[in-house]
Amino acid sequence: MVYNEKGFTLLESLLVLSIFLLVVSFSLILLKPHYLILEKHFFFSQLKADLLYAQQYALSTQKQVNVTFSNQNHFYYIRKYNGELLVKRDYSEDISVTGGTQPTSFKYTSSGNINSFGSLYIYIGKEGYLFTFLIGGGRFYVMKI
Question: What pLDDT, in 10s, does the model give residues 96-123?
Answer without folding.
Answer: 999 999 899 999 999 889 988 899 999 9
